Amino acid sequence: MSTYVLIHGGGDVGWSWHLVAAELRARGHEVIAPDLPGDDDTATLTDYADAVVEGIGDRTDVVVVGHSFGGFTAPLVADRLAAGLLVLVAGMIPAPGEPPEEWSRNTGCGEAVQAQAARDEGRTGHADPYVSFYHDVPRALADEALSKERAHPSPTAMREPWPLAAWPDVPTRFVLCREDRCFPPDFVRRLAAERLGLVPDEITAGHCAALSRPAELAALLESFRSRGTPGAARRA
């Protein structure tokens, strides 16, 4: 039995993982999906990692999974725990010393969003979250997700340089969502190659795959755990 640590993205809470958590628990695993500090303008990236590590306690055989902005937090946790596996799901991939607020400009994400929007009649990057984030999520679930939104990450965390000097020495996988209207798939493939030296595994889902395709995502996470380290990211 492993312990899956599921780290939510910006604006979210641990609830965003509840369907995946149920799938993993049904397979006999322990799951921790904490609410990271929100509505706190002073919270730092380290504070987010501290909150996760505190929730893990003395558990071992840990798989750390980060969604979207959770890509800035998950590697910090994996590094501190010497986790067995690190997985990013539609995650932001930070570079050493890179503040989150500079990530889009540094990576060319904004231009990629504009280019994909020109091809899909403006759906990518659309201001309506039901169009850009929750287009493949059942409406009741999307409504509930939006009702739980809060201020996370903080302005302080957005300005803070990512504190690691290199990507952690932990086997890493990336899950690309083929129908993502937040981080365009072609952009993600390029960034994963440039920053992690890997080819992502892919799932047919929008940005919020944990709500739209929980069974498929849980099965993919389990396949990573059972397959071990071959094909994982190189260390920067």
Task: Please explain how this structure is put together.
- There is one protein chain.
- By secondary structure, this protein is an alpha/beta fold.
- It has one domain: Alpha/Beta hydrolase fold, catalytic domain (Rossmann fold, 3-Layer(aba) Sandwich).
- The chain is built from eleven helices and six strands.
- It has a six-stranded parallel β-sheet with strand order 2-1-3-4-5-6, sandwiched between helices.
- β1, α1 and β2 form a beta-alpha-beta unit.
- It starts with a strand and ends in a 9-residue tail after the last helix.
- The C terminus is likely disordered.
Salient structural properties:
globular, alpha/beta, disordered C terminus, Rossmann fold, single chain, six-stranded parallel sheet, 236 residues, 6 strands, 11 helices
What percent of residues adopt helix (DSSP H or I)? 40-55%
| CATH homologous superfamily (4th level) name | Alpha/Beta hydrolase fold, catalytic domain
**Helix/sheet category:** alpha/beta
Return the CATH class: Alpha Beta
Overall average pLDDT? 95
CATH architecture: 3-Layer(aba) Sandwich
Structurally, the number of domains stands at 1
Question: Which residue ranges are poorly predicted, with pLDDT under 50 across at least 5 consecutive positions?
Answer: 230-236
What's the story with the biggest beta sheet? 6 strands, parallel
Structural Rg: 16 Å
- The strand line-up of the biggest sheet is 2-1-3-4-5-6
- Order of helical and strand elements: EHEHEHEHHHHHEHEHH
* Count of DSSP strands: 6
